[in-house]
Design goal:
By secondary structure, the chain is an alpha/beta fold. The chain is built from seven helices and five strands; from the N terminus they run αααββαββαααβ. The protein has a three-stranded mixed β-sheet with strand order 2-1-3, with helices on one face. Strands 4-5 form a two-stranded parallel ribbon. The chain starts with a helix and ends with a strand.
Length: 227
Amino acid sequence: MVALTVVLVLAAGFAVQHFWVGRAQSVRAPEVVRAAAPYGGGEPGGEQAGEPGSAASGTGASTAGASAAGAPGAVGTSAPEIVVDVGGKVREPGIHRLPAGSRVADALRAAGGVRPGTNTDTLNRARFLVDGEQVIVGSPAAPAPEAGTSTGMGGAAAPGAAPAAPVPLNTATVDQLDTLPGVGPVLAQHIIDYRTQHGGFRSVDELREVNGIGDRRFADLRNLVRP
């Protein structure tokens, strides 16, 4: 009886121990998994981003840095600008910086608006501006070519052909100056640069002072232009 009692006690103790060891237990996720999860940088148990020896982590960091540098609106980037010279009958004439894609109406607002009583019927306010352009307010419009005048594509006078009327030096564009005989795009830009630096032409004789215009070329142009 004593031996049987001992065997039963041992069997009961073994059963209790087996049940205790085999019970279900809750498992907590490792701390490293919870720390890496917000970044989405790797799988549980993998090496953390930035640790030595992790080639995948280094590649991911480089890709992320390149994407951030090229993303629109990143720090250090700025919208493109154009610089225009607004003159004539405006409240604040001078050089103004505007966003690329601005129109003549935007340049007038930047210059404080047009002075009262100024006729702007010949001014195209919806025209897009280009960098380095000069907008003169209140000056007469450039003369239109007469009927029958030889024109090139788009209705502009063919380069090198004499214009139908004197070209105004103070308001002419590069394309209009390019219609003068012996004047190409480079010389036309020199004329506009001189006009900008000296506040316009007061007489046709000032054309002699433009870089690239000698006595012979001035003689060919003097009757084809006006201040």
